[in-house]
TrEMBL record:
Species annotation: Loigolactobacillus binensis
Name under which the protein is recorded: Fructose-1,6-bisphosphatase class 3
Hydrolase as UniProt keyword: yes
One matching Pfam family: FBPase_2
Cross-referenced InterPro entries: FBPtase_class3, Metallo-depent_PP-like
Gene3D superfamilies named in the record: 3.60.21.10
Coiled-coil region: none
Reactions catalysed, as given in the entry: beta-D-fructose 1,6-bisphosphate + H2O = beta-D-fructose 6-phosphate + phosphate
EC numbers, comma separated: 3.1.3.11
Entry cofactors: Mn(2+)
SUPFAM superfamilies associated with the record: Metallo-dependent phosphatases
Enzyme kind, highest EC tier: hydrolase
């Protein structure tokens, strides 16, 4: 604790009684059970599935209901009551339609109040009253506390409690009270959320996820490689911007740009229409659940896809040329093409090119943008920088985000720590200095924050590093030697599509290696875990490795990965009893969930179980409270 904090405590607690009271409070808090943390990664714009997992607490809400009302509710009643907690407004509308007799609805309200108060009490037992009060809806704090902490065995207050509940109904506040209570239960079931990267790309509504996160009570974010593209675009990287637009076109998600963030793509569309035609390699991917595109819509996206891809490949050349420290000269591909034969020379071998769209490329100067291309990308960059909603979302992502986090004996980062085949941390040279391990992540984060705070010129090193984080061979967020985007579009030989992964992904199965990673970040191998996202866990593979020290939680929230993973995502829960990995089956839709009570089927697996419940005293917050306790005891001794 620094001198400033000490001075503030002296000012805040001026009397012996005040010091003693705060000591009693803090030491009591240290004895409470640790609250529940939830870890999610790679949600990739899948808002409906994401918000459902938040609402049901990764299955925790229904489990709490089943535990509390065991023997008193049928499975069907448990399901109905749980869905009321998940979606109170929508379920109330449906339930009220079933009751034609006002007396029946009145009775349902009274029964529901009683059940909600019992459940609220059940989920709040490991919190202080002060914390529970902060979680309550302000309009109902007094009423809820009276019912929550009431003595129902005393006849003296029986009429008092009855009058409260009757008046809630009589004054037409029943629906609002139920909605507020359900939201409080959701909030208390999971105390803190860790989102281990990749909010953006592929799915249709990352902006709704960001809106939801901005309302969430307590969270942190570890940036993923897809998030970096969006941060890079608003920081001034034309290359990051071109990449994210290409991905949006590829996955039929350009509406995110136009509808969600109000950015006009008309200039890009007109340019694409003038210069490009249909091309099977660039047609947008469509999921069966989506509205089929008309022929005109598909052609327009296909043209945009080609236009922005070629702009991207042109922009890569100058960045790679001016950054020899990136060691990516082999990725300057446009000057390796024989434009007459339509072949390319890669690694000493010639490959035929197919589905080409090189009509805007000058073979004599292949990386030079046409004046129209330059205007288009400049206009788009200006639009991204001035989009208010996007700026708010990115500012929040910066404020809550980081390259990595150590939290309660867990080390969280999205991708990898670049290493050699024998497990040595690989170094990246920047401005004459070598960075490896923890220092590598730190230097990338410093440059990202500098670029975001002061968007520079297009040849600014910090801004170029944002693109490197997306695709560079020693990027801890990418974790591969090459991103073979060009090859996948234009070369049929699958050998050229291979993206060699960093040895980290093989070594992380070994306990000795995970121990070395934990030690690099100042953590204990005896108690620590590493939690990653980024790489979908394929069917038949385990997400828990290295004697349960390594946990990979990318289970495929993104619909394009459902075939790869066979599931709909993972959530990791960490409470006072230990760690549980929750496996979620694919989510159908919010409408189906509400109408048919279709919950995500979730199964839990114990990852780490403790013999004694973990207390607040054993957490990072507990360590901070212990420091305060020591200072308060010293201040108290000074008053003796």
């Amino acid at each position: 604790m620094d001198v400033t904090d000490l001075a503030l405590l002296k000012e805040q607690y001026t009397t012996k009684t005040a010091l003693a009271t705060e000591l009693i409070n803090l030491e009591a808090i240290l004895s409470l059970p640790k609250s529940t943390e939830a870890f999610i990664s790679d949600v990739h714009g899948e808002y409906d599935a994401f918000q459902h997992v938040l609402r049901n607490g990764s299955g925790n809400v229904k489990q709490k209901v089943a535990d509390l009302f065991a023997g008193k509710m049928t499975p069907q009643t448990i399901s109905h009551f749980s869905f009321l907690i998940y979606y109170p407004s929508e379920r109330l509308a449906a339930i009220k339609k079933r009751y034609h007799d006002p007396d029946d609805l009145h009775q349902w309200y009274l029964d529901t109040f009683q059940r909600l108060i019992k459940l609220l009490h059940f989920v709040s037992t490991k919190y202080t009253r002060s914390k529970v009060r902060k979680a309550l809806a302000p309009d109902f704090v007094y009423i809820t506390e009276e019912l929550l902490y009431g003595d129902y065995h005393s006849t003296d207050k029986a009429g008092y409690y009855q009058q409260i509940t009757e008046n809630i109904i009589a004054l037409q506040q029943a629906d609002e009270f139920i909605i507020a209570s359900c939201h409080t239960i959701q909030r208390l079931v999971v105390d803190h959320l860790h989102l281990v990267g990749d909010i953006y790309d592929r799915g249709p509504h990352p902006e709704l996820i960001m809106d939801r996160l901005m309302r969430y009570h307590s969270l942190d974010i570890q940036w993923g490689n897809h998030d970096i593209l969006w941060l890079g675009a608003v920081s001034g990287s034309r290359l990051c911007l071109a990449n994210l637009l290409r991905i949006c076109a590829r996955y039929n998600n350009l509406s995110i740009i136009e509808d969600a963030y109000g950015i006009n793509l008309r200039h890009l569309s007109l340019f694409a229409e003038e210069h490009y035609q249909d091309n099977p390699a660039f047609r947008p991917k469509q999921l069966h659940s989506e509205r089929p595109l008309s022929a005109a819509e598909e052609l327009q996206i296909t043209q945009i896809h080609q236009a922005i891809a070629i702009i991207q490949f042109k922009l890569e050349g100058p960045v790679i040329a001016r950054r020899p420290e990136f060691k990516m000269a082999h990725r300057r591909l446009l000057d390796k093409i024989d434009y007459q034969k339509m072949t390319i020379n890669l690694h000493g071998k010639s490959y035929p090119l197919e589905n080409t769209c090189f009509q805007t490329i000058d073979p004599a100067d292949p990386y030079k943008l046409l004046p129209e291309e330059q205007r288009v990308i400049d206009q788009l960059l200006s639009a991204f920088r001035n989009a208010d909603k996007l700026q708010r979302h990115m500012a929040f992502l910066m404020r809550k985000g980081s390259m990595y986090l150590t939290y309660n004996d867990n080390l969280l980062f999205h991708g990898c720590i670049p290493v050699t085949a024998d497990g040595q941390f690989q170094s990246f040279k920047l401005h004459g200095k070598e960075y490896a391990g923890k220092a590598l992540l730190d230097v990338f984060e410093r440059n990202l924050r500098a670029s975001f705070a002061h968007p520079g010129d297009e040849d600014d090193c910090a801004t170029d590093l944002l693109w490197y984080l997306w695709t560079g061979p020693l990027s801890p967020l990418f974790g591969k030697h090459d991103m073979t985007t060009f090859e996948r579009y234009f070369i049929s030989d699958p050998a050229t599509h291979e993206e060699k992964t960093n040895p980290y992904y093989k070594l992380r199965r070994e306990a000795w290696f995970v121990d070395s990673v934990l030690q690099e970040f100042g953590m204990s191998p005896a108690t620590g875990h590493v939690i990653n996202g980024h790489t979908p866990v394929k069917k038949g593979k385990t997400p828990v490795m290295a004697d349960r020290k390594m946990i990979v939680i990318d289970g495929g929230f993104s619909k394009p990965y459902h075939k790869t993973t066979g599931i709909g995502g993972y959530t990791l829960l960490y409470n006072s009893y230990g760690m549980q990995l929750v496996t979620h089956q694919p989510f159908t839709s919010k409408a189906d969930a509400i109408a048919n009570l279709t919950d995500i089927i979730s199964t839990k697996r114990i990852v780490d179980q403790v013999t004694e419940r973990k207390l607040v005293a054993e957490t990072d917050i507990g360590a901070e409270l212990k420091q305060q306790v020591a200072v308060l005891r010293q201040l108290l001794a000074d008053k003796e």
